[in-house]
Write a structure and sequence with these properties.
Layout (H helix, E strand, L loop, with lengths): L5 H5 L37 E7 L4 H18 L2 E7 L1 H14 L5 E5 L14 H10 L5 H7 L10 E7 L1 E5 H6 L9 H13 L14 H12 L16 H14 L13 H7 L5 E4 L2 H7 L4 H4 L5 E4 L13 E8 L6 H12 L1 H10 L29 H4 L11 H8 L2 H11 L4 H16 L2
Parallel strand pairs: 1-2, 1-3
Antiparallel strand pairs: 3-8, 4-8, 5-6, 5-7
Helix pairs in contact: 2-14, 8-9, 8-17, 9-17, 16-18, 17-18
Keywords: Periplasm, Signal, Sugar transport, Transport
Main location: periplasm
Family: Belongs to the bacterial solute-binding protein 1 family.
Length: about 450
């Protein structure tokens, strides 16, 4: 194995400004850091890496990610090949990698996915603790998703999360009788009904969309006090609160544009850009699609597009979630130290703030110091996404994140329940009972 030369060590956090990525300027001075000693990592001689991650949803994400990867290679000599996978295909491909013990060394997977493969992953505690100390600590959501349930051992490093805020056409909302986006679910339903009456329906995703369907369906059920499991991991989805949520969802669905039960993650973006819907739930990418559109007619609409927190239901607090990109290293890698060094390098301010900024706030930060990044103040309409990782609930709420909870999410139990009730394929009572049956297969099996 090879110890880092001075140049290589600089690239992993000690004076790393000397190795600034070619993507853009040096790191933002506003991001505060504390003194912390990075873990010593001996990169294996001749190391090379394969990385699997989700396809870009905003162009700058891939541009900055590739630039940071190239800078890592220049700093360490480690060749890195990054493969970009379609969102719906990433989870199955991760499963193939885990089950065959071959393929990518590093997988940047979805929210709970590392917890499906805890016995096949390399521990990352030293990296996580160093980053937490240097950058103001991890948000609780990041800790839940990074640590193996019941331990303080980190099995994943969350890179960021895209928020589930509301995106809406302010002019149409005003035409429907609302000067501002509603803050509670009663007024939200009235607004959606008003929009439908003036010919501008809304649309929220009910298909097997990794991001948007999970965001909407979990928000809905939690807003009324329902949850899949409780703190003791007892399946609790078949409850009075869940059934009330599903009844509300059915009334809301009547204001939807047709076809939402088959929507995937790009679908609501396309519908809103086409003027087919007045409101949806999405990351900041949708607003930026208007703002940066090459079609001047679409770009002109950006002034009328705004973002807001999703309404609060009877439960009395916000129930948004986040789609998190969560990185893991599989034990089958021949170069575990190179992989660890790579993840550490990506999270250092000289690289991370460039990626955060190039992504236009689409992937919100998991480390508290990055709340000071300039990306959150450049455009006030983006600021609503700054606290995504601070405020969002986890998909296993109220219970712990575990292999069982991750399996329930991967099987779209919550999404299918909401879709069945909303569309009338099942009564709310039957949909909740079916979700209970499916969830118990994982929790009692």
């Amino acid at each position: 194995m090879t110890r880092f030369t001075r140049r290589q060590t600089l690239g992993l956090g000690i004076g790393a400004a000397a190795l600034a990525s070619p993507f853009g300027q040096a790191a933002r001075a506003a991001v505060p850091t504390a003194d912390a000693t990075p873990p010593k990592i001996d990169i294996e001689s001749g190391a090379s890496l394969r990385v699997l991650r989700p396809a870009k949803f905003v162009p700058g994400d891939e541009t900055a990610f590739n630039a940071n990867t190239k800078a890592f290679t220049e700093a360490t000599g480690v060749q890195v090949k990054v493969d970009y996978q379609a969102w719906e295909d990433l989870r199955p491909q991760t499963a193939v990698t885990a089950n065959t013990g071959a393929g990518p060394d590093v997988v940047i997977g979805w929210t709970d996915d590392p917890h499906l493969y805890t016995d096949k992953l390399i521990e990352l505690t030293d990296i996580a603790e160093y980053l937490g100390k240097k950058y103001g600590g991890w948000y609780p959501l990041a800790e839940r998703l990074g640590k193996h349930f019941g331990t303080n051992n980190w099995i994943a490093i969350p890179l960021g999360g895209t928020g589930g805020a509301a995106v809406y056409r302010a002019g149409w909302v005003k035409e429907a009788g609302f000067d501002a986006f509603p803050k509670n679910t009663d007024d939200f339903l009235k607004m959606c009904q008003g929009l439908q009456k003036i010919g501008h329906p809304v649309g929220f995703t009910l298909g097997h969309a990794v991001g948007d369907a999970n965001s909407f369906c979990h928000w809905l059920v939690w807003a009324f006090g329902g949850h899949m499991i409780d703190e003791a991991q007892k399946v609790t989805i078949n409850s009075k609160q869940t059934i009330e949520a599903l009844k509300y969802g059915k009334a809301l669905y009547e204001t939807f544009v047709p076809g939402t039960q088959s929507w995937l993650d790009p679908s609501n973006n396309k519908a809103m850009l086409a003027g087919e819907i007045a409101a949806t739930q999405n990351g900041v990418s949708l607003y930026n699609s208007f703002k940066n559109a090459k079609d001047p007619n679409i770009a002109a609409l950006a002034a009328d597009v705004d973002n807001a927190r999703m309404p609060v239901g009877p439960v009395g607090f916000g129930t948004e979630t986040a789609l998190v990109v969560n990185s893991m290293i599989f034990k089958h890698t021949a170069y575990p130290n190179a992989a660890r060094a790579y993840l550490l390098y990506l999270m250092e301010v000289e690289q991370y703030d460039k990626w955060l900024t190039a992504s236009l706030g689409y992937w919100a930060h998991p480390l508290k110091a990055y709340a000071k990044s300039d990306v959150w103040t450049i455009d006030p309409k983006v600021t609503v996404y700054r606290d995504t990782m601070q405020d969002s609930l986890w998909l296993a709420y109220k219970g712990p994140v575990s292999e069982k909870s991750a399996a329930v999410v991967a099987d779209y139990v919550m999404v299918d329940m909401v879709a069945a009730a909303c569309t009338g394929a099942s009564t709310p009572e039957d949909a909740a009972a079916e979700a209970e049956r499916r969830a118990k297969r994982y929790y009692q099996g």
